[in-house]
Backbone:
């Protein structure tokens, strides 16, 4: 019998993956059968990593960091260019997005370093600078959405780490002061998304198009939806990136409020179990990792659903376990697998 597997987490994960398969087969059937490979790899990754105790995984945390940085650099050198961005490494018929894949391993590394008993202000500052290396490489691709999720995970680890509160306040202050700098490094299309968010109706056929079509999709589903394969926005391609960045809007249109509630319920169960794991963690580093993965998934869900409902600017953030993104799926499954091995029994 497999150890470490948490039944509620497993059932919620499988339910969301089944729901994802149903809706993706309706709105983007062309991604199959190759996408089944990612689903199988995701389940295998979840099972394998859940069987490894967090203390064992922590032994390789330094290696995880080095390999993660190398993968991010390699992506910039040999990665395929799509729509002006360099994010994917092609491997046969599949493609691999390193920025997504390395996220759980970076969290393992920083969870161990930030819970060091000898942590002081100098070491904390050094670790923050160290974190800026992979974060900067992700932003250069550019991939603002993945960078935000990775940063959220790092903040989650900081909240669980045993650091003095004044250090954390300094970190918050420095972060707030660096926001203008972040604006300067954003790509032009990313800046336009933020500006258009404030007034999407100013350019309904241009920069505000995605936000307007997404809100139409969410509202037109009503209670039970238009039905699978019958969504006007999704089937007639009025809704862009309907199978990735706007999967929640697609579900809302074809499956209605009921489908949206099922999605939120499944994600809530996963977050609830991660919160329980934090209370039963194997140690300080395991608790910090669980806090980081919780924060990363929570922010990812909030940003995706928020932008689908017109509450946040459009950002390329997939919905965990539901959007058609093989690398995102693998990263989430690996992260949840490590989380299962980080709790006491």
Residues:
């Amino acid at each position: 019998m497999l150890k470490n597997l948490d039944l509620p987490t497993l059932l919620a994960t499988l339910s969301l993956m089944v729901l994802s398969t149903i809706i993706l087969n309706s709105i983007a059937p062309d991604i199959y059968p190759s996408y089944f490979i990612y689903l199988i790899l995701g389940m295998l990754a979840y099972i394998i990593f859940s069987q490894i105790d967090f203390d064992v995984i922590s032994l390789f945390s330094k290696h995880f960091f080095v390999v993660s940085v190398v993968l991010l650099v390699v992506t910039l050198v040999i990665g395929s260019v799509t729509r002006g961005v360099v994010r994917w490494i092609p491997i046969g018929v599949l493609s691999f997005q390193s920025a997504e894949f390395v996220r759980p391993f970076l969290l393992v590394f920083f969870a161990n370093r930030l819970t060091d008993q000898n942590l002081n202000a100098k070491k904390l500052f050094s670790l923050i600078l160290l974190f800026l290396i992979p974060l900067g490489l992700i932003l250069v691709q550019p991939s603002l959405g993945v960078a935000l999720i990775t940063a959220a995970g790092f903040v989650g680890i900081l909240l669980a780490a045993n650091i003095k509160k004044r250090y954390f306040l300094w970190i918050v202050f420095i972060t707030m002061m660096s926001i203008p700098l972040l604006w300067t490094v954003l790509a032009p299309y990313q800046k336009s998304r933020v500006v258009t968010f404030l007034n999407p109706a100013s350019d309904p056929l241009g920069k505000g198009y995605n936000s307007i079509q997404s809100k139409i999709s969410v509202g037109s589903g009503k209670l039970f939806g238009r039905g699978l394969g019958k969504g006007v926005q999704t089937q007639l391609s009025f809704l862009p990136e309907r199978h990735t960045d706007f999967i929640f809007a697609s579900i809302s249109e074809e499956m209605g409020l009921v489908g949206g509630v099922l999605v939120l319920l499944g994600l809530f169960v996963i977050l609830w179990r991660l919160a329980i794991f934090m209370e039963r963690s194997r140690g300080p580093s395991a608790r910090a990792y669980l806090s980081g993965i919780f924060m990363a998934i929570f922010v990812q869900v909030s940003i995706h659903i928020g932008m689908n409902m017109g509450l946040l600017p459009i950002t390329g953030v997939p919905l965990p376990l539901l959007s058609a993104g093989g690398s995102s799926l693998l990263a989430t499954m690996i992260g949840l697998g490590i989380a299962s091995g980080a709790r006491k029994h």
The chain has a mean pLDDT of 85.
